[in-house]
Design goal:
Distance between the termini: 26 Å
Number of helices: 7
Number of domains: 1
Shape: elongated
Oligomer: single chain
Strand content: under 5%
Helix content: over 70%
């Protein structure tokens, strides 16, 4: 789920939106989306699939880490489920974008420039919603990584990196709310988290969790 969620998320946000959205040019962005509407719709579907995979991932981590600390694992689940809900709502803005650009008769009172501007605002609203959800992503991942560190299920340096990168993501996302200019440093915050999730995903896939009787005695 770590690997699937990462792959689908990168496709929707980086590959599709990165190629269609033109910063500072609402009209060009609108034209790109209209010309590539099927691709844009596919990106919405892959986003929704990615968020659904987070639900499955959260359930799996809950089952894995429940013996370590029931209270903390439940807190982590709450953070991640709230994240998914936030991201699902944010993705509705992409459907709003398509409504603005649909050419429907009910939009006749607005001219093309106004519709393009409204569509661009909806795109920005989705980005703001995703960033807000990343606060919850970071907090939930921090708790899960701490439990992995405590359990010894995975190498401790990897789990410790998870705590660091997750806190970094949450701090970055909150900082963007306070000062939008921080957003230009997104790579600094996202890259460590990407390394953690990909590495952990492959580790669990190929090696599995090193569960022993002592690792679950903390329950």
């Amino acid at each position: 789920m770590y690997l699937i969620g990462m792959a689908t998320g990168i496709f929707g946000e980086s590959f599709v939106r990165g190629s269609l959205i033109v910063a500072g040019d609402a009209t060009q962005t609108a034209q790109n989306i209209i010309r590539s509407e099927p691709l844009f719709r596919i990106s919405i579907a892959t986003d929704l699939f990615a968020y659904t995979s987070v639900v499955v991932l959260t359930w799996a981590l809950f089952v894995l880490l429940r013996p370590v600390n029931r209270d903390l694992v439940f807190l982590a689940v709450l953070f991640r489920i709230a994240e998914v809900a936030t991201h699902f709502v944010a993705t509705l803005n992409s459907l709003v974008v398509l409504r603005y650009l649909s050419g429907g008769e009910y939009l006749a009172s607005l001219d093309a420039n106004q519709l393009h501007t409204l569509a661009r605002v909806a795109v920005s609203a989705q980005g703001a919603g995703l960033n807000t959800g990343f606060i919850l992503t970071g907090l939930g991942s921090t708790v899960f990584a701490y439990l992995l560190l405590k359990s010894g299920y995975v190498p401790k340096p990897l789990a410790a990196w998870g705590v660091f990168s997750s806190l970094l993501l949450a701090t970055y996302a909150m900082s963007v709310v306070v000062s939008p200019a921080v957003g230009k440093y997104w790579v600094v915050a996202m890259a460590p988290m990407g390394v953690y999730e990909i590495t952990l995903g492959f580790w669990l896939l190929l090696r599995g969790a090193a569960i022993t009787s002592s690792s679950v005695s903390a329950a």
